[in-house]
């Protein structure tokens, strides 16, 4: 049982390490798009197609991606704190 938990933990850790750069890129692109379009966050998503909305929801809203999303958001905030 212990080996099983170690394997599952290792797989999850590897998944999170792969997803952090993906989430970071997504967060950075979303922030740039909001600044470029000068729309609010909600207005920007209302103008997106259904497929784009679903992709965004699955990437950001999936509970399995939550640790990677939080870490990527923290990294983005630290790197861009002087731009506010």
Report what the structure shows.
The longest helix is centred in the first third of the chain and has 36 residues, at 2-37. The chain has 84 residues and is an all-alpha fold. It has one domain (18-78). Helix content is 82%, strand content 0%. It starts with a helix and ends in a 5-residue tail after the last helix. The radius of gyration is 16 Å and the shape is flat. The mean pLDDT is 89.
Q: Flag low-confidence runs.
A: none
Radius of gyration based on Cα positions: 16 Å
How helix-rich are the residues, as a percent range?
A: over 70%
Query: What's the number of structural domains?
Result: 1
Principal-axes shape call: flat
Mean pLDDT: 89
How far do the termini sit from each other? 49 Å
Q: What is the number of E strands?
A: 0
Structural class: mainly alpha
Beta-strand percent range: under 5%
For the largest beta-sheet, the strand count, sense and barrel status come to: none
Number of helices: 4
Topology order in helix (H) and strand (E) letters: HHHH
Oligomer: single chain
Please tag this protein with its features.
4 helices; flat; mainly alpha
Topology record:
Blueprint: H1 2-37, H2 41-47, H3 50-61, H4 66-79
Helix pairs in contact: 1-4
Summed up, what is this model?
This protein has helices spanning 2-37, 41-47, 50-61, 66-79. With 84 residues, the protein is mainly alpha-helical.
